[in-house]
């Protein structure tokens, strides 16, 4: 029957929470069962426990006798190491007559190595060195500690499940298994404790058996172990703890019951006052756009720390910041670090928002991509030529795109989409500003041709020239240097080009390209210093009045000026040899001004580009042997 009770108790006694009291002989625990945790760091724990039972030495005599663990001491120099020791002997108090006798039988020393950092689960291993005296009074009669504790050195493996970490009203479970080093005895035990601030309630079950009986011998199979169950309590009164329990024997090899009485004194060492700490929180963002940044916030000094921001929000939080005036510095890749002094109070909360400026000034480019003819939004790739910026893609539904951190200055942007002509533009991006861009892409099937030639205005010979586009970014066109001819495929639309050749004045022109059609242009370039004789310009005899048949030649001259907006022209007037030199000089000046007025009034030429001078007959004779028209 008692063996069945052992099996039931060993299976049902499970968990406990132990606060500051040692097991019998030392080492944090209950009575015979040890906890995997160690004593609190920085405290000495002293205890005295007496395991007492009544014996009847005679018909009218009652003695109270049992092992006494005196001057028990626990000390944990670190949170994972515990050292303990105790004087051990048997105390016998007689009642008839009254007498007291203590038989000192030796001492016990031990140490425990704990792994307390795992959540809930705590692990430990302990060793016990028993220093039994060579001679003592009860050695021959009752044996070491009346046979109530195994003699010899031993080891023990310990595990605890501290469910209190999950919720404060839950218990802690303890498991012990160990052996003596000589292999003579094995020990197993379990314990459970409900802990509170004032009173702890617990119960433990333990069993001892010869190692030869195996593990099953501890639970009573084919062996009669020394099995016990012990309910107990601990009353906490400041630094003093009163503890007691009743150890009930479950087998015939142990006493039916024993009372356990004890007192514990906890002596904490003085500890330095807790270091004051405050909290620091804030945000790191781009100074121009306000966008959050992935950054590191660090504190200077020996007590400084560092924390990273959330890259999605730019928010940071430092739970333990040193109190006082601190210097906090935020740094992010590609940005100028920012350092600021902050005041952190004890248990206070300091906040700050860092606005970091980029090492390289930049702005934002945003805009829309759409079909040139239908206006439909397009999903297209927008790349930044000559930069390390990744290409962005415009939204297929809206055509909108946005790219931040674009280097300030002139940036070449290329827009591409399959089935469309690519477009290139040069934008000036300002530091911290948003530059808007709208690009219309022309489908490849909406194309025409631009053809023509570039010739010398005076000789009509072909000129090697470069034809560049003014309003749109397109590759410049070249031509045949011998014939001056050129041909290019362009999207349908309006264009403005600038024709340039070495030694010639540049000429600009606008034109339209229609779908599947060819636009043809001839560019007659004027060389610098060229003198052009306008043939077909006639005046009334002896007057500065233009005749109507002169208008076509003058309108041709106006067109030359329009085609070459950068040139400035001197209009030279001449006369025949009839009349006096003074009269001819005056007439030649009037005729030059008459041509100038016509070009301004009817040709739309800016008068600042024109000058008029009269040269009578002399200069005309030097330039042409033909008699000038009258």
The average pLDDT score comes to: 86
Question: Reading side by side through the largest sheet, how are the strands ordered?
Answer: 1-2-3-4-5-6-7-8-9-10-11-12
The best one-word shape is rod-shaped
Q: Given the helix and strand composition, which structural class is it?
A: mainly beta
Q: Give me the Rg, rounded.
A: 54 Å
- Percent of residues in helical segments? under 10%
N-C termini distance: 154 Å
Helix count equals 5
Number of strands: 36
Strand content: over 45%
What's this, in brief?
The chain is mainly beta. Mean pLDDT is 86; it is low at 1-19 and 619-630.
Describe this structure in words.
By secondary structure, the protein is mainly β. Helix content is 9%, strand content 49%. The strands form eight sheets. A twelve-stranded antiparallel barrel has the order 1-2-3-4-5-6-7-8-9-10-11-12. The longest helix has 21 residues, at 581-601. The chain is rod-shaped.
Summary keywords:
twelve-stranded antiparallel β-barrel; mainly beta; disordered N terminus; disordered C terminus; single chain; four-stranded mixed sheet; 630 residues
Topology:
Blueprint: H1 2-12, E1 43-58, E2 61-78, E3 81-95, E4 98-115, E5 121-132, E6 154-162, E7 172-180, E8 185-194, E9 199-210, H2 214-217, E10 226-237, E11 240-249, E12 257-268, E13 277-286, E14 296-299, E15 306-308, E16 315-322, E17 324-331, E18 335-336, E19 338-344, E20 349-358, E21 362-371, E22 381-385, E23 392-393, E24 400-407, E25 409-416, E26 423-429, E27 434-441, E28 447-456, E29 466-469, E30 477-478, E31 485-491, E32 493-500, E33 507-513, E34 518-525, H3 551-563, E35 569-573, H4 581-601, E36 610-614, H5 618-623
Parallel strand pairs: 13-20, 21-27, 28-34, 35-36
Antiparallel strand pairs: 1-2, 1-12, 2-3, 3-4, 4-5, 5-6, 6-7, 7-8, 8-9, 9-10, 10-11, 11-12, 13-16, 14-15, 14-17, 17-19, 18-20, 21-24, 22-23, 22-25, 25-26, 28-31, 29-30, 29-32, 32-33
């Amino acid at each position: 029957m008692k063996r069945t009770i052992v099996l039931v108790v060993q299976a049902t006694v499970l968990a406990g929470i132990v606060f500051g009291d040692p097991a019998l002989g030392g080492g944090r625990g209950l009575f015979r069962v040890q906890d995997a945790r160690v004593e609190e760091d920085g405290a000495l724990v002293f205890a005295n426990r007496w395991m007492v039972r009544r014996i009847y030495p005679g018909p009218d005599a009652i003695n109270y006798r049992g092992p006494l663990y005196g001057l028990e001491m626990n000390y944990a120099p670190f949170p994972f190491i515990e050292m303990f020791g105790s004087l051990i002997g048997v105390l016998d108090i007689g009642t008839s007559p009254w007498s007291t006798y203590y038989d000192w039988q030796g001492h016990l020393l031990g140490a425990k190595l704990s792994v307390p950092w795992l959540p809930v689960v705590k692990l430990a291993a302990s060793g016990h060195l028993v220093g039994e005296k060579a001679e003592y009074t009860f050695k021959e009669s009752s044996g070491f500690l009346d046979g109530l504790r195994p003699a010899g050195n031993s080891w023990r493996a310990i595990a605890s499940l501290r469910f209190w970490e999950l919720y404060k009203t839950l218990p802690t479970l303890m498991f012990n298994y160990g052996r003596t080093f000589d292999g003579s005895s094995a020990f197993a035990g379990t314990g459970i404790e409900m802990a509170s601030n004032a009173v702890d309630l617990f119960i433990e079950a333990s069993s001892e058996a010869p190692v030869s009986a195996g593990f099953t011998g501890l639970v009573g199979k084919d062996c009669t172990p020394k099995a016990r169950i012990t309910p107990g309590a601990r009353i906490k009164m400041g630094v003093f703890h009163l503890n007691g329990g009743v150890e009930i024997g479950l087998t015939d090899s142990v006493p039916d019951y024993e009372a356990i009485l004890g007192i514990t004194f906890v002596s904490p060492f003085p500890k330095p006052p807790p270091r004051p700490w405050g909290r620091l929180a804030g945000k790191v963002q781009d100074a121009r756009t306000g966008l959050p940044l992935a950054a590191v916030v660090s504190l200077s000094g020996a007590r400084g720390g560092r924390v990273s921001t959330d890259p999605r929000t730019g928010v940071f939080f430092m739970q333990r910041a040193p109190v006082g005036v601190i210097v906090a510095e935020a740094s992010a890749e590609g940005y100028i670090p920012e350092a600021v002094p902050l005041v952190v109070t004890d248990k206070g909360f300091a906040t700050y928002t860092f606005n970091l400026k980029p090492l390289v000034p930049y702005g934002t480019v945003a805009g829309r991509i759409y079909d040139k003819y239908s206006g439909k939004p397009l999903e297209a790739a927008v790349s930044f030529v000559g930069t390390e910026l990744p290409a962005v893609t415009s939204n297929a539904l809206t055509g909108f795109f946005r790219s931040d951190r674009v280097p300030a200055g002139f940036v070449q942007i290329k827009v591409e989409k399959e089935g469309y002509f690519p477009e290139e533009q040069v934008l000036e991006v300002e530091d911290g500003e948003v530059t808007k861009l709208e690009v219309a892409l022309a489908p490849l099937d909406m194309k025409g041709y631009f053809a023509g030639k570039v010739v010398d205005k005076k000789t009509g010979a072909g000129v090697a020239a470069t034809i560049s586009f003014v309003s749109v970014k397109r590759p410049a066109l070249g031509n045949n240097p011998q014939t001056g001819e050129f041909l290019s495929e362009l999207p349908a639309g309006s264009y403005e080009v600038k024709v340039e050749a070495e030694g010639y004045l540049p000429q600009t022109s606008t034109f339209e390209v229609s779908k599947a059609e060819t636009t043809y242009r001839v560019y007659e370039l004027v060389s610098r210093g060229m003198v052009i004789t306008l043939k077909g310009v006639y005046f009334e005899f002896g007057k500065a009045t233009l005749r109507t048949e002169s208008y076509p030649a003058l309108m041709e001259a106006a067109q030359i000026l329009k085609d070459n907006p950068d040139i400035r022209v001197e209009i030279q007037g001449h006369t025949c040899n009839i009349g006096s030199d003074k009269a001819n000089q005056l007439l030649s000046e009037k005729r030059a001004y008459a041509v100038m007025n016509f070009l301004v009034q009817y040709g739309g030429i800016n008068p600042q580009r024109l000058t008029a001078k009269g040269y009578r007959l002399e200069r005309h004779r030097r330039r042409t042997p033909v008699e000038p028209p009258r």
